[in-house]
């Protein structure tokens, strides 16, 4: 029987805002403004015509803000999932899935980077 | 030493009991034949397959066939000993070159169901034996419990689950009621269970929130139930033009309640002809219904 090799656990990574990402608090929620994406000249022109924002920005809701407030540079995704599950009374799996969706959404907009926790080989 | 099995999972007429940290990772098939995949911390542990036949299967032949399949897929060698599992089952084991074991069990229930449990990772047979021995099967004409992904209800016979969906914060299941020789569908039941009930409902209250979800041109009469539950009888002009011409209406019944201990909102929606289902609120906890708070680490 063959066993599939298991890579580094992404839950052992630490999320943090990349350099250049602005974080603005508006009342109870947080707005994140990312770095301008690299675009070719034709795409920049098209984006200007389509009135696309120059920088990706996201307004987080109450739960997203709560998660972001716990990005202290030491808390891993695994610990965040535990805290989220306790805060919202979710099951562990629900918390992990919701957190993965949230972090994935931010990663697609280059608004978060994952760094390996000390002592692990997890890739960012 | 007995293994505690606190988590009930009831699916397609079979009620299983699982260890505390197990969960249902996949559902396949239907009433006649299908399988469930159980996992622990994202690692597949056990698969249970079932088949309903008019003629009872032969236990030993089924066990031998399943064991041969396991050997073919894993390259393990069969151990000659076969252990009994209850009065209607047997357990067999296979061993690999490095001494690791995998087990499988078969039970032929008196209700006409044949179930096969198979380990998906090497380990001792104790958990498989306990899970297999604790499973109960009901007959086709008996009421059945459906308990999976936090949904938990007991439905009369002739209700069949057409699908269940488990998302983060939402579990949803659809059941059809059939009647007659042709098994025509005449009633539909949809159960939804949402997390963060207090945030979802807000300060409006459950009835006001339900009313805000009504369809266009739909009116509702409310009936408060015990413990804060709500029953809405919703009526709107029929979708079918012929029935609309004759003054017909589409009626659906909504029951909603909040589990305050787990902050879950349950919505039961029934449509169809005949007597509507009563509120299916079930007090017993099912798999996925309560968040674990033991703080264990899975990393």
Question: Topology, please?
Answer:
The complex is a heterodimer of chains A (124) and B (299).
Chain A: E1 13-16, E2 22-26, E3 29-33, H1 41-49, E4 57-59, H2 62-68, H3 77-88, H4 92-108, E5 113-116
Antiparallel strand pairs in A: 1-5, 2-3, 3-4
Helix pairs in contact in A: 3-4
Chain B: E1 7-11, E2 14-18, E3 22-29, E4 33-40, E5 43-52, H1 59-74, E6 77-85, E7 89-95, E8 101-108, E9 113-119, H2 126-134, E10 136-137, E11 144-148, E12 151-155, E13 159-167, E14 170-179, E15 184-194, H3 197-201, H4 206-212, E16 219-224, E17 230-237, H5 241-245, E18 249-259, E19 264-272
Antiparallel strand pairs in B: 1-2, 2-10, 3-4, 4-5, 5-9, 6-7, 7-8, 8-9, 11-12, 13-14, 14-15, 15-19, 16-17, 17-18, 18-19
Strand tally of chain B: 19
User: Biggest sheet of chain B, in brief?
Assistant: 7 strands, antiparallel
First-last Cα distance of chain A: 31 Å
Average residue pLDDT of chain B? 89
User: What is the strand arrangement across the widest sheet of chain B?
Assistant: 3-4-5-9-8-7-6
Q: What does it look like?
A:
The complex is a heterodimer of chains A (124) and B (299). Chain A has four helices and five strands. Chain A has helices at residues 41-49, 62-68, 77-88, 92-108, and strands spanning 13-16, 22-26, 29-33, 57-59, 113-116. In chain A, the strands form two sheets. A three-stranded antiparallel beta sheet of chain A has the order 2-3-4, covered by helices on one side. Chain A has a two-stranded antiparallel sheet with strand order 1-5. The mean pLDDT of chain A is 85. With 299 residues, chain B is mainly beta. The longest helix of chain B has 16 residues, at 59-74. Mean pLDDT of chain B is 89; it is low at 291-299. The interface between A and B is medium-sized, with 21 and 23 residues.
